[in-house]
Amino acid sequence: MARHPVLQGIIDSDVVARALFRGLLASLLLLADGYVLILASRRVGVYLLLALTASTGLAAIAVVMISYRAQLRSMRSSVATGVYPAKEFRRLIPLLAAAVLLVVPGFVTDALGVLLLTRPVGWLLGATLERLRRSHFHELYEYLRLQN
After folding, report:
1. How far, in Å, are 33, 34, 43, 105 from residue 46 at the CA level?
2. What sign results for the dihedral spanned by CA atoms 32, 38, 39, 44?
3. Is residue 121 part of a domain?
4. What is the pTM (predicted TM-score) of this model?
5. Does residue 102 belong to any structural domain of this protein?
6. What residues have CB less than 8 Å from 82, skipping those under 6 apart?
7. In tens digits, what is the pLDDT along the chain, a chain of 148 residues?
8. 4 inside domain
9. Which domain covers residue 18, as residue numbers?
């Protein structure tokens, strides 16, 4: 079975339309988040809101990095014993997505980031993406095995 080139999507109008639609949805999320921030700044003040936003981002990144390093250690241990680290991949995906959402200032993105850190939602996202991109994760596993 021949594999399609990775960049084949840039000449497929359906792929480009889906990507643009996803970008539109992401921009709507950021606009809604900005609106909520504006409303909140009127209530508590701009400086307090900026301080809260920055401190929650820093605290969240600290928590995510601790979990991320633990998952990497577990993954490397599995690879060293010759076991495919599916569980670690499934936990790593939502951690990275949560980190991105928690860094972006806003209430909605923070709420989504925290939601991804919960086991059921994170596992669902991780299992779905790991299943959809299984061949890519197997390539990563083989690469990690070669490094040991």
Report:
1. 15, 13, 9, 13
2. positive
3. yes
4. 0.73
5. yes
6. 145
7. 556 555 555 667 787 788 889 989 888 888 888 898 899 899 999 999 888 888 888 888 898 899 999 999 999 999 999 999 999 999 999 999 998 888 888 888 888 899 999 999 999 999 998 898 888 888 889 888 888 7
8. no
9. 11-147
